[in-house]
Design goal:
alpha/beta; Rossmann fold; about 120 residues; about 45% helix; single chain
């Protein structure tokens, strides 16, 4: 079985409508899975009982997210304002990880063979 490219899904969680943010990320995750990718959707953490506790500050979430970005083949940036997602993109750019703003471009990138080995 061919390896599935790992895609980190980056987007808003706390800014704007949280329900919309969650569903937008879930839809992207589903589509990426069906298209042969292995997506990581950090928006799924919104349902964790400790997600909104002060003991887990925003900076800690970013540290964990950065570790996943480091092993990703690409990042998909979903629409919406997000300081955290912007920081994730800056981090990915620094590592030379490709960033996409729509799933169609990500699919073309893979089909065109631009995925680094």
């Amino acid at each position: 079985m061919p390896q599935r490219p790992r895609v980190y899904i980056s987007g808003p969680i706390t800014q704007g409508d949280r329900n919309h943010n969650f569903h937008q990320a879930a839809d992207a995750q589903r589509r990426l899975m069906l298209e042969g990718f292995a997506p990581l959707n950090p928006m799924g953490t919104m349902i964790l009982p400790f997600a909104w506790q002060p003991e887990v500050p925003h900076g800690l979430w970013l540290e964990v997210d950065f570790a996943w970005i480091e092993v990703s083949n690409a990042v998909l940036r979903l629409p919406g304002y997000s300081v955290g997602a912007d920081a994730e993109l800056t981090y990915a750019e620094g590592l030379g990880i490709p960033i996409f703003h729509d799933i169609e471009s990500l699919i073309r990138w893979r089909k065109d063979g631009l995925l680094a080995a």
